[in-house]
Amino acid sequence: MVDKRDIQQLNRLYLLVAQRLASQDVEFASQVTGFSKQILSQIAELSLSQIDELQEEVSFLLFKPRLNESGFMKMLSMPSGVRGSFMSSALANTVEGQHEAT
């Protein structure tokens, strides 16, 4: 059974990864996370205690899947080795058009 702590751990890890990516390459971080550069700048400034406080107070995921249902089903049906290219293409289209990836 999934409980609140599982969600909190996912949020903490996601925020830490987003923070690390934002401090290295904000453009890439934006593509990977889907967050705007403005939000990433704020995440980059958070202390570890602020991240821990945030994740403890929220009981839902702070992120959402980058693919819509149709795109996810398409990816699941693809053979191994092709999925990465599909995701790169779908995310590139998403970033350009700011739409959910299909």
From TrEMBL:
Keywords: Activator, Bacterial flagellum biogenesis, Cell projection, Cilium, Cytoplasm, Disulfide bond, DNA-binding, Flagellum, Transcription, Transcription regulation. Gene3D superfamilies: Flagellar transcriptional activator FlhD. It comes from the Bacteria. It holds the Pfam family FlhD. Functions in complex with FlhC as a master transcriptional regulator that regulates transcription of several flagellar and non-flagellar operons by binding to their promoter region. Activates expression of class 2 flagellar genes, including fliA, which is a flagellum-specific sigma factor that turns on the class 3 genes. Also regulates genes whose products function in a variety of physiological pathways. This is Flagellar transcriptional regulator FlhD. It comes from Noviherbaspirillum album.
